Structure prediction request, 295 residues.
Amino acid sequence: MVSFSASIVPIMKLSFVFCFFVAAYAGNFYQDFDLTWGDSRAKILNNGHLLTLSLDKASGSGFQSKDEYLFGKIDMQLKLVPGNSAGTVTAYYLSSKGATWDEIDFEFLGNLSGDPYILHTNVYTQGKGNREQQFYLWFDPTADFHTYSILWNPQRIIFSVDGTPIREFKNLESNGVPFPKNQPMRIYSSLWNADDWATRGGLVKTDWSKAPFTASYRNFNANACVWRNEASSCSSSSSSLSSSSSSKNNAWLSQELDTIGQQRLKWVQKNYMIYNYCTDTKRFPQGLPSECKMS
Prediction:
């Protein structure tokens, strides 16, 4: 996961739903994920229904999905590090591999007790990011679990929190803007120390006397096209998909924001957005990225 420039931080069962094999998972962490680093700091509990990541001065921890996906609707409930979480970052994202990777990011930047978390989002295409949008949340994300969702279909990417859209990145390939559509991605999550940049541009350091820091995960769900053996589990025929009597199970493949969704998106961006690369003319003195002019 590529870290973010300090200058921008401003303050289960597999079920085949129909004959075209769009996979729907009701998450069991033993079945769906591998604990990849951090030794015993990453734990699967409650018969596979709860996963926790911890961070101490020696190391953070992380996990990744067993499967790769090429498009999907991914939901995960998270409860973030409580109390003084300054310097910590909880990352939850989709990413492919290689020098020209694609990536869809949620990152939660910790803060001092009583100060709000910053929810940082980004989209990488062909190894290039620089598409940061940041938000405060309208609730305390450490008090309970909340659902963070990524809808990724061939037309758009929609980031949502508890069903409320906060960001949309549209496919504007016809206007020369790359869009992630060819590289399968895994789900990754990690809890790590980033006190050189995460909180107030690195001015506030991690208080290790409060360690270990712990984030919790539950209720993973994926309606997604699984990529295995160089092939997708989904049909490439949109006409066949639309003719299926079970197409409601695959509405995410062509889902877009309805009028209410657009209104909610505007509400979030008006009241809770604290950074938008599309308005940062100082950062882009030669002109804003082309997708900003077309949004």
